[in-house]
Design goal:
Elements (H helix, E strand, L loop, with lengths): L1 E5 L8 H18 L5 H6 L3 H5 L10 E3 L2 E3 L12 H4 L7 H22 L1 H22 L11 H14 L4 E8 L2 E8 H19 L8 H21 L7 H9 L6
Antiparallel strand pairs: 1-4, 2-3, 4-5
Helix pairs in contact: 1-5, 5-6, 5-7, 6-7, 6-9, 7-9, 8-9
């Protein structure tokens, strides 16, 4: 299921969301010209290297239970900083476009309620939390971890708390069957989160493939952040057009 758009128009231009997409796009263009994958190894998060950056294992090719691991080399920044820099790298067109689509669909509305600068801080914190979750789920992995999906998962977790009555237009692709349907946003978001839990439970701690626990960590942080800001009264008011629509439907404001 691929989200296309929701039914909650943003009250103002989502400049932070647009800027994040533009930065990821610029980095991805740089990656397209990086035939040796140097950016991936220099700025991606390698869990084993984070815990032991001075190990000679990263300076030479070596064998593990999973096969030959090429020489990774040192990170271009302090290894702890790769928990953030890795969130701006992507592994291919589908990876990049998928993450940016999810960010575009859900990010503008979360930015609306958080405010621009708080949303930027929240997005970066979600990316770091996602990296930490993956780091501790696969501490010895030599596989570089990249992608904005953990940070975007944080946005999705916040959206679930902030817009429980929203609907999302979904593109359904199942073999040769293609259709567009409308779902309640909580149904899709909970379904997506359940898939991440299932994937994390089945994969164990191999550290390869999809970084399931990064998605889980980002989503949980996003939901908790939205809940905390609501309890503290730090969320921006709901846009007037949402309140007006709810009154027409006979619903009381949240």
């Amino acid at each position: 299921m691929i989200p296309l758009r929701d039914d909650v128009p943003a009250a103002r231009r989502p400049v932070v969301t647009q800027a994040l997409i533009a930065i990821c796009a610029a980095v991805f263009l740089l990656q397209l010209g990086d035939q040796d994958g140097e950016l991936l190894y220099r700025f991606g998060m390698v869990p084993g290297r984070v815990f032991d950056p001075d190990s000679p294992l990263w300076q030479r090719s070596h064998y593990t239970a999973g096969g030959l691991v090429p020489a990774i080399g040192a990170a271009a920044v302090p290894d702890w900083l790769t928990l953030l820099t890795c969130t701006f790298l992507h592994g291919g067109w589908l990876h990049f476009l998928g993450n940016m689509l999810f960010l575009w669909v859900f990010g503008d509305n979360v930015e609306d309620r958080f405010g621009r600068l708080p949303f930027l801080a929240f997005y970066l914190a979600s990316g770091i939390a996602a990296s930490l979750a993956h780091l501790y789920s696969a501490p010895g992995s030599p596989v570089p971890t990249i992608g904005a999906s953990g940070a975007v998962a944080g946005v999705m977790g916040a959206y679930l708390l902030l817009y429980p009555r929203a609907h999302v237009e979904m593109l359904i692709v199942f073999g040769f069957f293609i259709d567009v349907i409308v779902l309640r946003a909580p149904f899709f978001l909970v379904y997506w989160f359940a898939l991440q839990l299932l994937g994390g439970a089945l994969e164990g701690s191999t550290g390869g493939g999809v970084a399931w626990w990064a998605h889980i960590g980002g989503f949980v942080l996003g939901a908790l952040a939205a809940l905390l800001l609501r309890l503290l009264g730090r969320l921006r008011p709901e846009p007037a057009h949402i309140l007006l629509r709810r009154r027409r439907l006979g619903r009381s404001p949240r």
